């Protein structure tokens, strides 16, 4: 059994901790490692894992030792592998101990997921850190030559079994207070603030098909409240009807329940990295709100993914999907883009399953990290 330390500095509330928590659990459960997950904001972790206690400095949760990464952090026994997640800066005491160790640990900088071409050339490259210490860049990705994406061993089997069981779906949704209307299309919405939301909601309200929009608590609720003309906060359980659109606000749920919500829906609007990956494993059409970056750097990342994801679609379907994603991320034009997208729905649904199967044919991120570690011995 090897020991792994994963350091996570919480950014944007849940994105970074969401990825590292899934990774830590998988390394422990499927690869048998002792994993310590160091988190600087325990409250954010508890939102994803309600059975945890934010007051504890360290605790065992789902086979992982979860520790508070406080400002006065002190070096402990070195792990065999140290993961610096998403460019967070390790404690100086940790780096000093690693340099002084007779047998230095494998130090990995786990980068953000990207489909850009340059990722393949940078994946696995070393960066000398002095006194013989090396840090290696580890890039998740969607093509050979990258680190893959997170996927638990039985994830797709569990997803397919759940989707094939209407009773399980009804029971799960009922537990969230959701009653599915006859012939209704279910859409989940988890996004950053977006001025284009109103146009989309207007289009859904007059769409010939009834839509139930399920909105977990998050940053998009302010825009939703503005469109509705509501004065107060939208609390879990809030519902509203506008034409053929029914909206319902959901509580912030655990990661496993969020997976099931994605599996239940016909279309998933997601944000960032963690929910983006989980929506792909749901095998359903999706809409990605990429994290906005300075000087529009995120557009290159969005287009790089679309260049891969659109392969295999008919030209008309690919163009419609491309315009929908661009409109959502630009915050304008969603009404027209949604109307143009409707005829391509069956093709998108089939394509989502094909993409899922294609990605599942490659090693997942935890397996790729394990292989990299084994090759370093």
UniProtKB/TrEMBL annotation:
The entry sums up its family as follows: Belongs to the glycosyltransferase 104 family.
Q: Which domain of life is it from?
A: Bacteria
MF terms per GO, please?
A: protein-arginine rhamnosyltransferase activity
Q: Which UniProt keywords apply?
A: Glycosyltransferase, Transferase
UniProt catalytic activity: dTDP-beta-L-rhamnose + L-arginyl-[protein] = N(omega)-(alpha-L-rhamnosyl)-L-arginyl-[protein] + dTDP + H(+)
Q: What is this protein called?
A: Protein-arginine rhamnosyltransferase
Function in brief: Protein-arginine rhamnosyltransferase that catalyzes the transfer of a single rhamnose to elongation factor P (EF-P) on 'Lys-32', a modification required for EF-P-dependent rescue of polyproline stalled ribosomes.
- What Pfam families does the annotation carry? EarP
Q: Does the keyword Glycosyltransferase apply?
A: yes
Keyword Transferase present in the record's keywords: the answer is yes
């Amino acid at each position: 059994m090897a020991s792994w330390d994963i350091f996570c500095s919480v950014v944007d509330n849940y994105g970074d901790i969401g990825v590292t928590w899934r990774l830590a659990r998988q390394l422990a459960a499927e690869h048998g490692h002792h994993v310590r997950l160091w988190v600087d904001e325990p409250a954010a972790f508890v939102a994803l894992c309600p059975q945890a206690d934010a007051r504890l400095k360290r605790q065992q949760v789902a086979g992982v030792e979860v520790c508070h990464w406080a400002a006065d952090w002190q070096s402990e026994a070195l792990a065999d592998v140290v993961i610096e997640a998403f460019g967070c800066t390790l404690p100086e005491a940790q780096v000093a101990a690693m340099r002084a160790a007779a047998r230095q640990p494998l130090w990995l900088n786990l980068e953000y997921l990207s489909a850009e071409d340059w990722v393949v050339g940078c994946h696995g490259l070393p960066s000398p850190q002095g006194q013989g210490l090396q840090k290696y860049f580890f890039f998740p990705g969607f093509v050979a030559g990258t680190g893959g994406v997170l996927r638990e061993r039985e994830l797709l089997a569990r997803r397919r079994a759940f989707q094939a069981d209407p009773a399980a779906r009804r029971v799960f949704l009922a537990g969230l207070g959701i009653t599915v209307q006859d012939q209704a299309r279910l859409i989940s919405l988890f996004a950053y603030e977006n001025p284009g939301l109103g146009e989309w909601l207007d289009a859904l309200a007059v769409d010939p098909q009834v839509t139930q929009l399920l909105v977990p608590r998050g940053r998009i609720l302010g825009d939703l409240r503005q469109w509705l003309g509501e004065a107060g906060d939208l609390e879990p359980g809030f519902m509203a009807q506008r034409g053929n659109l029914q909206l319902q606000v959901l509580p912030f749920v655990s990661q496993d329940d969020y997976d099931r919500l994605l599996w239940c829906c016909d279309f998933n609007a997601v944000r960032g990295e963690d929910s983006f990956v989980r929506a792909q494993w749901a095998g359903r059409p999706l809409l990605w709100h990429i994290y906005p970056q300075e000087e529009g750097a995120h557009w290159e990342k969005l287009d790089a993914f679309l260049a891969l994801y659109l392969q295999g679609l008919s030209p008309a379907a690919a163009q419609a999907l491309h315009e929908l994603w661009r409109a959502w991320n630009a915050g304008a034009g969603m009404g027209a883009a949604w109307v143009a997208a409707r005829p391509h729905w069956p093709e998108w649904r089939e394509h989502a399953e094909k993409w899922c199967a294609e990605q599942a044919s490659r090693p997942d991120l935890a397996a790729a990290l394990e292989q990299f570690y084994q090759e370093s011995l």
